[in-house]
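User: Hi! I have a protein structure encoded as tokens and I'd like to know what sequence might fold into it. I'm fairly new to this, so please keep things simple.
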């Protein structure tokens, strides 16, 4: 049974989430503040953490940083803070995804399933399909699927490989501009979104069946991108 630590200072929301998640087969641990959450996450370690940023004692981002000091359990932020700055700060601190309140329970459940799938992915990636092509990350080859509409092996630049590798190795994970940019060099912060938009556009034109309606390389406006298998 998958265990979920839910951290929120709203008792009504906690109760509703407990009822809903337990009905879906999850084991739920509840905490109403940051310090209680850190203690609850220590032993036994939950499989997934759902965390509000607006806690009464600690900033949610500080809780994420503390958790990331010793646990790799996926963290899904569930917060009323809808601004891009808050989202990027949480993701840069180590959160795996971000759901904004008010939210649809189906969306939250989908995010929980996605982070659980990612946690179970082996370190060695198999060949991954994108549109009409097969991507072999280890061999760095993009070849057409058999009997597909692919036009032959696709050549990618080093920057395109860098971005595609990060996205494909983190399926369904929201990656920020900072995650995707090379660790050294690259554009100034104000130029990041334009820089990435240009290269993601090139990848879409090469790989997506319809680049104007991408199915695999998805934009998260103002934050970054995610790869949808």
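Assistant: Happy to help. Inverse folding works backwards from shape to sequence: for each of the 229 positions I chose a residue that suits the local structure. Here it is:
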């Amino acid at each position: 049974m998958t265990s979920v630590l839910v951290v929120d200072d709203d008792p009504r929301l906690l109760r509703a989430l407990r009822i809903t998640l337990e009905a879906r087969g999850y084991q739920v641990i509840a905490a109403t503040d940051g310090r209680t959450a850190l203690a609850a996450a220590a032993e036994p370690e939950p499989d997934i953490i759902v965390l509000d940023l607006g806690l009464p004692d600690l900033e949610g981002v500080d809780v994420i940083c503390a958790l990331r000091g010793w646990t790799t359990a996926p963290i899904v932020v569930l917060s009323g803070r809808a601004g891009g700055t808050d989202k990027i700060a949480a993701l840069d601190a180590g959160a795996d995804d971000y759901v904004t309140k008010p939210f649809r329970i189906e969306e939250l459940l989908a995010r929980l399933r996605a982070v659980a799938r990612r946690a179970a992915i082996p370190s060695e990636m198999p060949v991954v399909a994108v549109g009409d092509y097969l991507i072999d990350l280890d061999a760095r080859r993009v070849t057409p699927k058999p009997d597909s509409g692919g036009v032959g092996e696709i050549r990618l630049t080093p920057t395109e490989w860098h971005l595609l590798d990060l996205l494909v190795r983190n399926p369904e994970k929201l990656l920020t501009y900072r995650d995707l940019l090379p660790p050294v060099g690259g554009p100034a912060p104000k130029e990041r979104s334009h820089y990435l938009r240009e290269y993601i556009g090139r990848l879409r034109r090469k790989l997506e069946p319809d680049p104007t309606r991408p199915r695999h390389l998805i934009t998260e406006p103002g934050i970054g991108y995610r790869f949808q298998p």
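A useful reference point when you look it over: The chain is about 35% helix and 20% strand. Feel free to ask if any position seems puzzling.
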